[in-house]
UniProtKB/TrEMBL annotation:
Catalyzes the phosphorylation of pantothenate the first step in CoA biosynthesis. May play a role in the physiological regulation of the intracellular CoA concentration. Functionally redudant with PANK1. The phosphatase activity shows preference for normal or oxidatively damaged intermediates of 4'-phosphopantetheine, which provides strong indirect evidence that the phosphatase activity pre-empts damage in the CoA pathway. Hydrolyzing excess 4'-phosphopantetheine could constitute a directed overflow mechanism to prevent its oxidation to the S-sulfonate, sulfonate, or other forms. The lineage of its organism: Eukaryota, Viridiplantae, Streptophyta, Embryophyta, Tracheophyta. This is Pantothenate kinase 2. CDD domains: ASKHA_NBD_PanK-II_Pank4. Residues 26-35 have a biased composition (Basic and acidic residues).
Length: 907
């Protein structure tokens, strides 16, 4: 054991990390005492400094990594992965589950590491493992449900997926979990009795601020404005976040001036808050729950209860002081009427009047505080809001009205989880406190459309349970209760929602407007693409889905494609009964997501076409479809490889200029093999792969719809006397399998290699439609290399040809070194690419690249059509969707795009 520890120290020698400090702590006598005392009596443990058990710690991966992942097999999870905020009405839980690690690093990755080194992914000295951050809430009145949930997932012992749990290591006897809120005091004994855990109480204000700071810095589109029913996401500049006013609306209201991390002051508050609404509301309406009261307000008309300016001014505005006739002059003012009793008022109207009174009051006091302290921004959080449109609109109206438009109210998607997140952040050494937005990916699992912003019951376990739930839900509709997530009222089943339509109402019903919070996937190895000209202003999506007709069009496209996709997916898994069941469940889950998003496009955050296309792939993965197009991809690869030798011969017989044009034409023509496009799939019935390829090539008449070929040719081959150095390194973002890669992009790559340009083929990490993956590429390159010396030598130089290296003839080895051809994964599993989140190996490979080529509709039209880069960029695509062609350049189906953009000047 001691030997291992010494080894690890050597492995991390360059950095004196916390891990080492802990090793020393363990060697230190004082430390030893602390550890043993802690295990017998956890209350004596220093709460601020949990201990890591580093025995048998092992570096995962190469020892020469600068930031290797460190596995702690004996870490006994006293560094809990669970934190709670136990409030008066709700318990909020934040917990972390680790990704399953795949320790086997394949040879392609090793070659990349050797060439590019390991990127400096984590600035911290103790890299965190990838994982997921989950957000769950329960009613405080149903504490037992919450305890069952924790127990069923063993969250107090680090989760059932924790290494120690899997290794059958006995968990610590009395783990400590961080909690905030009054319930941390009130229910400490219950937690101890039921789960054997000790609650470590964290200060509530501290937690709220830590949670808000984390969200505003680490989650892109966390904050949004809400005016007149319109939700707009706001991009917060991390460097310009402070100071701000945080208004947390729980039972009561706290107003906190936040000046930095851990720097804050509670400057004000009001006792008229969520508890007031619920308390008064319950007395006045006899509602049984907060949500029921809120739901009632949906059908309310507050003018029946409130005295409006118009009531006083005979239906007129009081325009001189800016009050319209519909402004509330006096909340509940009409109830002074002596002729009416409580029973004469509709509970719906009372609920809305109460809601508006309280929201308005909070908005007004908040603004006055912001004014007093000179704060530009006000963020509202707390579960009183619940993504409720009237509440947010009323608060926004108050802030807008009193500030005369100078200040704006902003809301937070994770509104209710600030405290719990803050408590979670208070654990030391989990390393999550300095996470960046690009390391987090939010995913919306199957239950998201149903659960929405609602409280849900115990979790679903494995895939089979998930599928059963989908099936049962369809059969019984809303009757389904525990052990499945509770469905929001008013839903009938998959894809069929019978709640009142939003049409005709100014604001959507609460059930559809509620915010859905996904699971935050932590991928510490994701980075911002270093060649983006301006990451701050970069927007991947080209098409704006906030245009309703555009949104509806793309929803229809996706819905219509689903049956065919299900067929392919089921066939790819052998067409078994199990695969059919999963296919069915996938179709339902996808249509539920689509139905939810068409109701409330911002339900999952800012929505772009790339998100929709990725959601579909994620949904397939959720039901364990590994690669729906696998056999199509293989068939097309084989067919294309048979014509490659002839194509290469034809190319080699041409002069440089003709060859370059033929190569670019070839890329555009072969991009027709796109199984995500309805038009193309219809076309495939009309001929063989090779026939379609030839037909497509024949139709490549210039000028193309966007035609910068001459500019590209000039840069590549020069013009007259004007000559340029060949590019040093090109990143080729490849798209589809088959002809696209083999007859299109590989020959282009070969031309660059011939010119002495190092080439990196960048491909998807995970399958998406018929896109080629980084995993599949080496084999394809190896096959192609059999027909071509240039490819063979470069692939060998790039460490791509493992078998070839073994079999290579001696003569080949002795020949002059070639520029390398490499393959890197992009970190995506989507037909599009978001350059704010790419793999660290791509980021490393990009460092000295001076050309990028983006190929295909997903990567260069749906996304990145307008993106600017620090190096030259060539965007090549065939437009396989008529509407997109019209929208982008008034073009038509099968138009081609060849856009060449020299490096952005201002980079
Ligand atoms: C998903 C795709 C972007 C893939 O295109 P690619 O990137 O392979 O060129 C494309 O197939 C697409 O936009 N399909 C939906 C539109 C349609 O069926 O017309
Ligand atoms: Mn594709």
């Amino acid at each position: 054991m001691a030997d291992n520890q010494t080894n690890n120290k050597t492995g991390c020698e360059s950095e004196r990390g916390d891990l080492e400090e802990n090793i020393e702590d363990k060697e230190d006598k004082e430390g030893e005492k602390e550890v043993s005392a802690a295990s017998s009596n956890p209350m004596q443990r220093s709460s601020s400094r949990p201990q890591l058990d580093v025995s048998r710690a092992a570096i995962q991966g190469d020892f020469d990594d600068r930031n290797p992942t460190i596995l702690l097999p004996n870490q006994s999870d006293d560094i809990s992965h669970l934190a709670l905020d136990i409030g008066g009405s709700l318990i909020k839980l934040v917990y972390f589950s680790r990704h399953e690690e795949n320790p086997s690093d394949n040879w392609r990755k090793r070659a990349i590491k050797q060439r590019f080194g390991v990127s400096n992914v984590n600035r911290r000295s103790y890299p965190i493992l990838g994982g997921r951050l989950h957000f769950v809430k329960f009613e405080t009145g149903k504490l037992n449900e919450c305890l069952d949930f924790i127990s069923s997932k063993q969250l107090h012992h680090g989760g059932i997926d924790s290494p120690s749990w899997n290794a059958g290591i006995r968990p610590v006897e009395n783990p400590i979990i961080k909690a905030t809120g009054g319930g941390a005091y009130k229910y400490a004994d219950v937690f101890n009795e039921r789960l054997g855990v000790s609650i470590d109480k964290e200060d509530e204000m501290n937690c709220l601020v830590a949670g808000a700071n984390f969200l505003l810095k680490a989650i892109r589109h966390e904050a949004f404005t809400h005016m007149d029913g319109q939700k707009d996401f706001v991009q917060i500049d991390h460097n310009d976040l402070f100071p701000y006013l945080l208004v947390n609306i729980g039972s009561g209201v706290s107003m906190i001036k936040v000046d930095g991390d851990g720097k804050f002051e509670r400057v004000s508050g009001t006792n008229v808050g969520g508890g007031t609404y619920w308390g008064l509301g319950r007395l006045l309406t006899k509602c049984k729950s907060f949500d029921e009261l809120l739901e009632l307000s949906q059908q309310g008309d507050n003018s029946k209860v409130d005295m409006l300016v118009g009531d006083i001014y005979g239906g007129m505005d009081y325009s001189k002081i800016g009050l319209s006739a519909s402004t509330i002059a006096s909340s509940f003012g009409k109830a002074i009427s002596e002729t009416k009793e409580l029973s004469d008022y509709r509970p719906e109207d009372i609920s809305l009047s109460l809601l508006r009174m309280i929201s308005y009051n909070i908005g007004q006091i908040s603004y006055l505080n912001a004014l007093w302290y000179g704060l530009k921004r006000i963020f509202f959080g707390g579960f009183f809001i619940r993504g409720h449109a009237y509440t947010m609109d009323t608060i926004s109206f108050a802030v807008q009205f009193w500030s005369k438009g100078q200040a704006q109210a902003m809301f937070l998607r994770h509104e209710g989880f600030l405290g719990a997140l803050g408590a979670f952040m208070s654990y030391e050494k989990h390393g999550l406190d300095d996470l960046m937005a690009h390391q987090l990916v939010e995913r919306f699992p199957m239950g998201a459309p149903y659960v929405g912003g609602k409280i849900h019951g115990p979790p679903l376990g494995d895939l089979n349970e998930k599928i059963s739930w989908m099936e049962k839900f369809l059969q019984k509709g809303t009757e389904i209760t525990a052990p499945v997530p509770m469905a929001p009222p008013g839903t009938t089943g998959m894809g069929g929602f019978d709640r009142p339509s939003s049409k005709g109402h100014m604001l959507r019903s609460d059930a559809s407007a509620a915010l859905t919070i996904g699971v935050l996937h932590l991928v510490p190895s994701l980075e911002v693409f270093p060649l983006l000209a301006d990451p701050k202003t970069y927007e991947p999506n080209t098409i704006d889905l906030s245009d309703r007709t555009e949104l509806e069009y793309w929803f229809t496209v996706l819905s219509e494609h689903t049956p065919d996709l299900v067929d392919k997916a089921v066939a790819s898994e052998g067409g078994t009964d199990d695969a059919k069941r999963r296919g069915d469940a996938f179709a339902r889950a996808l249509s539920a997501h689509l139905a939810r998003l068409i109701e409330e496009p911002a339900a999952y955050g800012k929505l772009g076409l790339a998100n929709l296309l990725e959601l579909r792939e994620e949904c397939l993965r959720e039901f364990q479809f590994r690669d729906a197009y696998i056999s199509i991809k293989q068939r097309e690869n084989e067919a294309s490889l048979t014509v490659l030798p002839d194509l290469l011969m034809e190319l080699d017989s041409m002069n440089e200029e003709d060859r370059l044009l033929t190569l670019v034409e070839g890329v555009l023509a072969a991009n027709i093999f796109d199984w995500g496009s309805r038009a193309c799939v219809d076309l495939y019935h009309k001929g063989t792969i090779i026939e379609i390829y030839r037909m497509s090539r024949k139709k490549m008449q210039r000028p193309w719809r966007v035609d910068d070929f001459d500019k590209f040719k000039e840069r590549m081959l020069g013009c007259g006397e004007k000559k340029f150095q060949p590019y040093k390194k090109a990143l080729l973002f490849v798209d589809n399998s088959g002809a696209d890669i083999i007859l299109g992009m590989l020959p282009l790559a070969r031309e660059l290699l011939r010119q002495g340009t190092e080439v990196v083929l960048v491909a998807n990490s995970l399958p998406a439609l018929n896109d080629v993956t980084a995993y599949e590429l080496p084999e394809i390159v190896a096959e192609a290399a059999k027909h071509c010396d240039i490819l063979r030598k470069s692939a060998e130089a790039g460490g791509l040809l493992v078998d070839a290296m073994v079999n290579a003839q001696d003569g080949l080895k002795a020949s002059s070194p070639s520029v390398p051809l490499m393959v890197v994964e992009n970190g995506c599993g989507s037909p599009c690419i978001d350059f704010r989140q790419v793999s660290s190996e791509l980021a490393a490979a990009a460092k000295d690249a001076d050309l990028i080529i983006l190929e295909g509709m997903g990567r260069s039209l749906h996304t990145n059509f307008n993106a600017k880069f620090k190096c030259d960029a060539l965007k090549l695509a065939m437009v396989k969707n008529q509407r997109l062609a019209v929208k982008l350049f008034n073009g038509k189906l099968y138009d081609c795009v060849c856009r060449f953009e020299p490096a952005a000047q201002h980079s």
